[in-house]
């Protein structure tokens, strides 16, 4: 009973041409473009396409059962960027393992992103799973003996400095109903936002998941024993604590220069072994960087304190 997962995140690809329209001058894309062109964000991702090429080689050759993407495929949330990212990742390529994907806040940059399902259209082959109702999230997919539950925590934001997320009461209600349908096996949430930072503290006000407490408590009720995420671009493994009933893993940005990498998880029964595969610019390849391991246990949820 062993399952191998590749977890990657925050690749922030872009495309040429973007498909810019006049109305984009009045939404969040304008500030995003300033960030990319003038504030250095673009240069931090200048090797992103090469890193994705190397990562795709890993996906094809390392014996993974499932690819797990925790969001921020794009830079400014354009459909052109969405399709560019999906194409470069090999979404729908039958020679690669199947994937599961949820959007990040950059993928839902403007209100139309949600209504017109930009992300879900481009990543359709990675959106298959069990749902309650017709809403795209959450959905669950069983890989071997492990349940992966895709929970959307990203939302469009209007203010230029706002990078916050929210799962929302309605989705949490669907999450409860979905969990009631799942049979035995470890349950792992895949979402964009972290519950907590590396120090078990809440993220800064304009970067956080607003309803992190409700998301945490609902996940604990549902017997979740691990939360996989991105959004923060530096990777970390967070053990359970007084305000966290189960561990969380941030894989960081897979493509940002000098933070680049992804995680290779082997889940044997209820035990997880993780290998961080870091990107090496000189060889244009990934190599082992660090290792970690812990037990996944249903008892985490029962030991939960709240704050
Ligand atoms: Fe990101
Ligand atoms: Fe993000």
Give descriptors for this structure.
6-stranded mixed sheet; binds fe (ii) ion; 22% strand; Purple Acid Phosphatase, chain A, domain 2; 307 residues; alpha/beta
Structural notes for this entry:
This protein has 307 residues and is α/β, with parallel strands linked by helices. The protein has one domain: Metallo-dependent phosphatases (Purple Acid Phosphatase, chain A, domain 2). The protein is built from nine helices and twelve strands. Strands 3-2-1-10-11-12 form a six-stranded mixed β-sheet. Strand 11 and strand 12 form a beta hairpin. The C terminus is likely disordered. The structure holds fe (ii) ion (2 copies).
- Main sheet specs: 6 strands, mixed
Secondary-structure-based class equals alpha/beta
Poorly predicted parts: 301-307
The count of domains is: 1
Q: What is the molecular shape?
A: globular
* Helix and strand pattern: EHHHEHEHHEEHEHEEEEEEH
- The side-by-side strand order for the widest beta sheet comes to 3-2-1-10-11-12
* CATH homology group: Metallo-dependent phosphatases
Tally of alpha and pi helices: 9
Helicity level: 10-25%
Mean pLDDT: 92
Query: What is the terminal separation in angstroms?
Result: 36 Å
The CATH architecture classification is 4-Layer Sandwich
CATH C-level category: Alpha Beta
CATH fold field value: Purple Acid Phosphatase, chain A, domain 2
Number of strand elements = 12
Task: Determine the strand fraction and express it as a percent band.
Answer: 15-25%
- Rg, rounded, reads 18 Å
């Amino acid at each position: 009973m062993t399952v191998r997962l590749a977890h990657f995140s925050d690749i922030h690809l872009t495309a040429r041409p973007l498909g810019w329209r006049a109305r984009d001058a009045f939404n969040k894309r304008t500030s995003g473009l300033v960030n990319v062109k003038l504030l250095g964000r673009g240069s931090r991702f200048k090797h992103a396409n090469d890193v994705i090429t190397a990562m795709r080689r890993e996906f094809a050759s390392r014996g993974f059962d499932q690819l797990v993407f925790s969001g921020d495929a794009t830079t400014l949330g354009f459909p052109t960027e969405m399709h560019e990212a999906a194409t470069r990742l090999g979404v729908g390529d039958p020679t690669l393992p199947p994937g599961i994907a949820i959007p990040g806040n950059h993928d839902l940059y403007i209100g139309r992103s949600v209504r017109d399902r930009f992300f879900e259209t481009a990543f359709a082959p990675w959106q298959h799973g069990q749902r309650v109702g017709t809403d795209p999230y959450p959905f669950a997919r069983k890989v071997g003996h492990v349940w992966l539950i895709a929970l959307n925590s990203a939302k469009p934001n209007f203010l230029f400095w706002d990078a916050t997320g929210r799962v929302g009461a309605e989705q949490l209600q669907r999450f409860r109903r979905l969990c009631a349908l799942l049979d035995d096996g470890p349950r792992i949430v895949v979402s964009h936002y972290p519950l907590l930072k590396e120090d078990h503290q809440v993220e800064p006000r304009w970067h956080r998941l607003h309803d992190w407490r409700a998301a945490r408590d609902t996940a604990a009720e549902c017997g979740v024993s691990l939360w996989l995420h991105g959004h923060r671009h530096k990777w970390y493994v967070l053990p359970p604590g007084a305000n966290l009933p189960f561990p969380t893993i941030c894989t960081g940005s897979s493509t940002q220069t000098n933070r680049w990498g992804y995680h290779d998880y082997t889940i044997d029964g209820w035990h997880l072994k993780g290998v961080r595969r870091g990107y090496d610019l000189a060889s244009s390849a990934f190599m082992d960087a660090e290792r970690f391991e812990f037990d996944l246990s249903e008892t985490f949820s029962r030991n939960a304190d709240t704050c």
